[in-house]
Amino acid sequence: MRQSLVQCTCRCLAQQRASLHTSPSAGQSTDGDRARPDRQAGLDYASQQIRRQPLERQGPRPSQASHARQQAYASAHRSGYGSAVPPPANNAQRYPHQARQPDYRQRAQPSRQPYLQPNRPPIDSRAPPRRSDTPLDLRPPAQTAPRLPNEPTEQYEPSDDRSNRPHRSRASEPRKHTVNRLSIRDTWAEAARERQSRQVAGKPIRPPPRPRARLSARRVRINIAIPSVTSIANLSRLLGYKLARLQRRLNAIGFDDARPDRILSADDASLIALELGFEPVVDDLNSFDIYPDPPASDLSALSPRPPIVCIMGHVDHGKTTLLDTLRSTSVAQGEAGGITQHIGAFEVPMKLLDANASDSAGTVTFLDTPGHAAFGAMRSRGANITDIAVIVVSADDGVMPQTREVISVLKQEPNVSPVVAITKIDRPGVDIEKAKNGLLAAGLEIEEYGGDVPCVQVSAVANIGLDTLVETILAVSEQKELRVERQGVRVEARVIESKVDKGRGNVATLLVMRGTLSVSQHIVAGSVMCKVRQLYRPGGQAVKEAVPGQPVEVTGWTQLPSAGDECLEAKTEKEARSAIENRKKRQEALALLADVEAINEKRRVAAEEAERLEAIQEAKLKKANSVLGDLEDGEALLANALPETKELRLVIKADFSGTVEAVAGAVADIGNKEAKVKIVLTGVGDVSNSDIDMARTAEAVILGFNIKAPKPIQSAAAQAGVAIHLDTVIYRLIDEVKQRVIGLMPKVYDSKVTGEATIAQVFDITTKGRETSKVAGCKVGNGSLARSALCKVLRDGVEVYSGKLSTLKQGKKDVDEVRKGSECGISFEDWQGFEANDALQTYELVQQTRHL
Fold first, then answer.
1. Which terminus of the chain is more exposed, N or C, with fewer CB under 10 A?
2. Each residue of 251-262: pLDDT tens digit?
3. Are both 738 and 764 inside the same structural domain?
4. Do 473 and 443 have their domain in common?
5. Can you name one GO molecular function term for this protein (predicted)?
């Protein structure tokens, strides 16, 4: 087999040698062949290397022989011999004895001829030499030739030593050279020598840079819809980020708490999405709302507006009585408890205040605010819409807590001009200077002490100083030059109060600030809309329109507006509905945000508490001696660390929305860690069946303020087991809630010692059943020993028993009580471990009075 393979290879090489030495035309050798007599030696060397290949088993496979032949050609080419000898082009030339079948793959094979550049002679030694005296050396220099991609640095050199021969795996190592790579290498070498010969002024001509794909500099952001509330874990799924990666990014941008259950608001989630390259989707339709018109630049051309005067001060300092005297009414006599419990808006003609005023002088609008501590929100609303604030201070009481609160509220309203009225100066023994000094200490400087606040001394009962007070109010209003637009602007008003009237439905008292409010207009207050049906003056007179500075009652509301809301006119009903829907969405988002903050805070506190309890438990376990005792102590610790907080659930109903807010705010903070108040529902109007159903479901108490509960409602509440408490005075209502909260608190008892005795001797007695038991012979030292009382036995000051007496005998008789100085026999329930000289005490448990 080996001999046949060698003979075949020699015949193949002889055929190729004959074809190379044959001229293209005459079959003779060319000048190039004569110039290179060593070409035959190169071919002989290649054939010798093929014959020297070792044979394994039956001889080399055709692929191995082909590889050896390629290695021989490559070695001859590197050494400068046989560079013009092309390798066999196909399998027919490699293996003539197997060339019986035509190779159909030869049609699709590309040409293996070297790449020829245009107008350039082929790189072949058979081509005629150039017109140069120096013959061209076709061997490429190793230092200037560029390295082929993935070209191995070590080449295989034929050797007879089989131990040094590398073993190549056909599957892992590619062939080191192919015909195409050799041709391309020759082409690159020729191009390199051509560039060296075309140097201009010592600067080589560099090839043009390889074109690169252009990347867009604009960063594309993906639109993504962000929910109103989401957790970090859900946001990672929404953005397509892994949770750990998102947490690392959050920590990098400044988020301290990146727990997976941390709830994010829409704003926080949008900022995170923007930071990560996303674009949060913004809906322009949801941003529509109604806003007031900008103020006029020239006030001189506007119509004058009546001044709005707010009467403020501490409770029971004479505010309503002073206002009744100014407008010649008697409202204060009909108020429950003698105090004002909601804002009242009144319009007083100027002629009634000033006798010298003309009939067309106009009016003054007065607001009467409550003085009780529970109505702080009402006082703040009154200060926001007023022009002049009359601070009423009683001459006998001086400055009180609500007076200081009013002064602090007015300091935050720079557009409000304060006027001080010291009332009740007709009472004997009053100290007016004390009241003035109290105002100065509270931060209000009156004119007598170098300030700019007028101070008037009045008495509404004796009608003293009222004219001076009216003149002061009118003078301050003239200085303010109150002017406002009546036409051509959007109507603006403020909600003073709102209530449910049986004959008129939902009614709200508005104070018009700008524009003219008329019937059939569409107005929006908060998240409630209204098509004005009727307008009523404070006296009950129906009117068609209301101008700035006038208080009116408006009907036609879809729901009750909240006191203090800003009321604006809508051009159409569609515009009003769009604004209402968007405001409701924003309110829901704010409510969700508040819930989110509460949940996050609750989880944070729970986590901190769990860590604290875990640390306490570990310390307790290390310190204790017994494992069982440690577990019991740990359970007791957990039970005492997290006491159960009981709740008094309330359903609050009142006559006005402002009073509902005041009652809810007054009772919401009642309680402590043991018991507290939880408001389930608030509403305006009388108690209804739906309120009873809600209270029964939530196990709540119905609290009514200035409302009624009809007898059928009371019967239904009694059948459902729902308690209803109604009152017309707010401080009595607050006291009722406090007592109910105290009733929910755990009972605490004190032990009161009722008798003391000493065990003098221990006796053994035999009962009828021939059972032996012990009896303690005692002598009463203090108080008396009662058989029904609780007792405890002390030994060396340490309690050894606590329980009840089983028997108490004096002689042979059973007695219920033994007094001081007497002797008796005593036995205890289920205990006989007493000894002589033990101390015995009887006591009773006395319940403590709890307070908030």
1. N
2. 888 887 888 878
3. no
4. yes
5. translation initiation factor activity
3-state secondary structure of 798: strand
472 and 515 in a single domain? The answer is no
Do 72 and 50 meet the contact criterion of CB atoms below 8 Å apart? yes
* pTM (whole model) above 0.85: no
* Each residue's pLDDT tens digit, 652-700: 998 887 788 878 888 888 888 888 899 988 888 889 888 998 899 889 9
Q: Which residues of 39-74 are buried (b: 16+ CB within 10 A; e: fewer)?
A: beebbebbbebbeebeeeeebbeeeebbbbbbbbbb
Instruction: Tell me the backbone φ, ψ of residue 425, rounded to 5 degrees.
Output: -80, -10
Q: Are 652 and 682 in contact (CB under 8 A)?
A: yes
Give the dihedral sign, CA 155/160/164/167: positive
Q: CATH number of the domain at 269, please.
A: 1.10.1660
Which residues contact residue 124 at a Cβ distance below 8 angstroms, ignoring those fewer than 6 apart?
84
In a domain, 560, yes or no: yes
Residue-wise pLDDT tens digits, 601-614 = 777 778 788 888 88
**Torsional sign, CA 125, 131, 133, 136:** negative
Asked if 348 and 311 touch (Cβ cutoff 8 Å), the reply is no
Q: Quick one: 317 and 434 in the same domain?
A: yes
CB 655 within 8 A of CB 706: yes
Give the number of other Cβ atoms within 10 Å of residue 414's Cβ: 7
Do 311 and 386 share a domain, yes or no? yes
> 722 and 670, same structural domain?
yes
Q: Are the C-beta atoms of residues 362 and 353 closer than 8 Å to each other?
A: no
- The DSSP 8-state label assigned to residue 448 in this structure reads G
Instruction: Give residue 554's pLDDT band: very low, low, confident or very high (50, 70, 90).
Output: very high
Radius of gyration for the alpha carbons in the chain, expressed in angstroms and rounded: 54
User: Residue 531's domain spans which residues?
Assistant: 492-570
Domain boundary (447, 481, 515) is at 481
- DSSP letter at 297? S
Which of 823, 735, 746 is CA-nearest to residue 778? 823
Tally Cβ neighbours within 10 Å of residue 221: 13
CATH number at residue 792: 2.40.30.10
Number of structural domains found in the chain = 5
Q: Tell me the one-letter amino acid at 203.
A: K
Same domain, yes or no, for 684 and 781? no
Short-list 61, 127, 125, 122, CA closest to 94: 61
In a domain, 162, yes or no: no
DSSP β-bridge partners for residue 804: 790
CA atoms within 13 A on the CB side of 116: 10
Most confident of 148-157, 338-347, 767-776: 767-776
SS (H, E, C) 349-367: EHHHHCCCCCCCCCEEEEE
Is there a single domain that holds both residue 526 and residue 462?
A: no
Amino acid at 817: E
User: For residue 206, what is the DSSP state?
Assistant: P
Q: Is residue 364, in this structure, part of any structural domain at all?
A: yes
Q: Which of 550, 570, 590 is the last residue of a domain?
A: 570
Cα–chain center distance at 356: 63
Per-residue b or e along 334-363, where b marks 16 or more CB atoms closer than 10 Å to that residue's CB: eeeeebbbbbbbbbbebeebbeeeeeeebb
- 356/304 Cα distance (integer angstroms): 20
Q: Are 115 and 182 in contact (CB under 8 A)?
A: no
Inside any domain, residue 56: no
Query: How many Cα atoms occupy the beta-carbon half-sphere of 289 within 13 Å?
Result: 13
CB-based burial, 526-559: b 16+ in 10 Å, e otherwise? bbbbbbbeebbeeeeeeeeebbbbbbbbbbbbee
Tell me the β-bridge partners of 456.
421
- Looking only at the bridges linking them, the beta strands covering 308-313 and 363-368 are parallel
What token pair was written down for 780?
Answer: 């009463």
Which tens digits make up the pLDDT trace of 455-472?
Answer: 999 988 888 888 888 888
> Are 78 and 156 spatial neighbours (Cβ–Cβ below 8 Å)?
no
Q: What is the pLDDT of residue 157?
A: 45
